[in-house]
Design a protein that fits this description.
Largest sheet: 7 strands, mixed
Strand order of the largest sheet: 5-4-8-2-1-12-14
Strand content: 35-45%
Distance between the termini: 32 Å
Helix content: 10-25%
Length: 335
């Protein structure tokens, strides 16, 4: 398990380092484009993700990906790959090490209307890629696997008896050459647990539509029975403050929300109206003396504090993190 660096240490990267990283990414992309067989990016009919968590104490997220083949000639295979990156993090991660129980089947519609699942062929081609033999147009491939997660941070994910906090890059594989495809996400939480993220439109929401894979993994999500949410408006934009506390809040949450609104007003006055309709602050007060992180996203931020909200200095540190992460709405995420 990776130990989190201090919150801002991971961002303190020089211009030279960024240039080196961009060059490395471009080189890797060019190499991949040259080495992959051509003609594999055939259209897909649908791409649906489903996330379940039936045994929270196991720390195992249960993922299924349904891929409907599109019209026209099918490729020989589809590659399912765990990413090596997470949005906003300038580092390489081995997310695939947490994957287990990978299996593939085909969903078949029987004449009587019932559904049958037939085991299907797949093999692992490297440490992050599973190759699945393709099927005929219109047929559906179902990939299932589990991901171990017990790290509350802005990079990895955590599932336990209290909650699920996941970052998509550490959980969801993508179909190689199809990251641009629209995707649907369905979350199946334990009884009485609710999900919230920057794209939520209701507190009981179970399904989300994303324009592509990159939006999917740029949307950290909290699933728990006892998070709270407060809302406010600034210049026609909606803001939500989700707080999940594992310790005493000391009655500070209302003041925290008011001060976050003051920060939003100050930064908006400096930058101008942001390019979103709503934004969500996901604040975790871990009360474990070790979990500490912050990460910006397109229409949300995830902030993890090591103490309880009532603890000395935690309130001020949370506001400092909010001011820093919200600044990235403009500087980095959109510039």
């Amino acid at each position: 398990m990776m130990q989190c660096l201090p919150r801002f240490a991971m961002r303190s990267i020089s211009l030279l380092a960024l240039i080196i990283i961009l060059c490395a990414v471009q080189t890797a992309h060019t190499h991949t484009a040259q080495s992959q067989p051509q003609g594999l990016a055939q259209p897909l009919g649908a791409l649906n993700y489903r996330l379940a968590m039936t045994r929270p104490l196991s720390h195992l997220f249960e993922v299924s990906i349904e891929v409907q083949m599109g019209a026209g000639p099918s490729p020989e295979y589809l590659d399912f790959q765990m990413p090596r990156w997470s949005p906003g993090r300038y580092a390489v991660f081995d997310f695939a090490k947490n994957v287990q129980d990978f299996e593939v089947s085909i969903r078949l519609q029987k004449p009587d209307g019932s559904v049958e699942y037939k085991p299907w062929s797949a093999r692992r081609t490297d440490d992050q890629t599973w190759r699945v033999v393709a099927v005929a147009p219109g047929e559906v491939i179902v990939v299932k696997y589990k991901v171990f997660g017990d790290d509350l941070s802005g990079t990895f994910s955590q599932l336990d008896e209290r909650h699920a906090s996941f970052n998509g890059g550490s959980v969801f594989m993508y179909v190689v050459d199809h990251k641009q495809n629209p995707v649907k996400l369905t979350i199946e939480p334990p009884p009485n647990w609710r999900a919230v993220n920057g794209s939520s439109t209701a507190t009981d929401q179970r399904e989300w539509q994303f324009p592509n894979y990159d939006f999917l993994i740029d949307t950290p999500t909290e699933v728990a029975p006892d998070w709270t949410i407060d809302e406010f408006q600034v210049e026609g934009k909606s803001y939500r403050v989700m707080v999940h506390s594992f310790g005493d809040e000391g009655g500070k949450r209302p003041a925290l929300v008011r001060d976050i609104e003051r920060i939003v007003r100050a930064e908006t006055a400096m930058w101008g109206a942001p390019e979103f309709e709503s934004y969500t602050f996901l604040l975790h007060f871990a009360a474990d003396d070790r979990s500490s992180d912050g990460m910006e996203h397109l229409n949300s931020t995830q902030i993890v504090e090591p103490g309880a909200l009532a603890d000395k200095g935690i309130y001020e540190d949370a506001l400092d993190a909010v001011a820093h992460e919200f600044f990235h709405v403009w500087n980095v995420k959109r510039l």
